[in-house]
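The protein record quoted in full:
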Amino acid sequence: MQHPEFPLSPTLIYLNHAAVSPWPLRASQAVIDFARQNCVYGSHFYGQWLEKEADLRSQFKQLLNAPSDEDIALVKNTSEALSFVAYGLDWRTGQNIVTSNEEFPSNRIPWQSLTDQGIELREADLKSSTTPEDALFALVDNQTRLLTISSVQFASGIRMDLDKIGEFCKKKGILLCVDAIQSLGAVQFDVQSCQADFVMADGHKWLCGPEGLGVFYSTPAARSQLRLTQYGWHMMKDTHNYENKPWEIHPGARRFECGSPNMLGIHALSASLSLLLETGMINVEQRVLQNADYLSVKIQENPHLKLLSKAASRLKSGIVVFKHKTLENSFVYNHLQANGLVCAMRGEGIRLSAHFYQTEEELDRGLKLISELSSPAV
């Protein structure tokens, strides 16, 4: 039985939430209502739009367990927020950044671009030590300025022990930057518990929102270390005083929002987050991990398949990765896509990512399609 908020086409089995998620019905309706209001009234209700913008900051505060709404900036995407950090810090030649060798380009390219300033990027092999965290720690020295890591690795599903990493960084006096795009909306996240200095994520994956809008969290102490790289009216302290001369930089995270907000995206993403918060992230996480466990067990039971993600890892994520033992990944991927199983080809295999609203019945439909790969007709 379908979840009432996700009236997906019966021709599809959607297991690609780690890439781009379908919107819930309420997000679609929010966009329709906003567009209709704008068409009929223009900006007459702009005051209400500003309230919705404030609501979204508050929703992100809840999802992240941030101390204050003032720690939340609404940004275009994860890459923009990472670039704010990379080009906001005052680097010294000889300093280094520690990360992993599994990062999505968003959490690699901004740091690589600093190498011509004499900054070294050190990429740990997460499988080289007893734990992924130990692999990171082994590359840290007294010239390490920042450790940047994805909370969950996009291609392998490895979920990091952020509390352990945060404790290590605080003891060493190192800034911690977390790309949380594969966590937010799937599992619980606590910026205070992990002691992160910077956290960023887009809204279009597990948060079930639109592309082009995300969140950038920073602590007051950390953001005070960032020089601004973009300027405009929206990052003023007295934002709507357009005769503000001279002006002051906004004291909170809004300083990173230089221009007009994405009001259409704000209405959609706020609606999506309302569903997650109403459901409760404890319940969302439980269902996401149950679905991942179910897929992992069934894949392991199939003699033609090999599970690549760790089914028994101490920290689980919503990502399940497998490969066929005799068929090429590209063949498997194209076959599944052509038959309505929406997935992704990532890393060494095929990535499945089911969300909280999906049932075992739906997962079984996908598993049946995967099992048919080994039949003579394929």
User: Anything to note?
Assistant: The first helix runs from residue 25 to 41. The chain has two domains: 13-23+281-373, 27-278. The chain is about 35% helix and 15% strand.
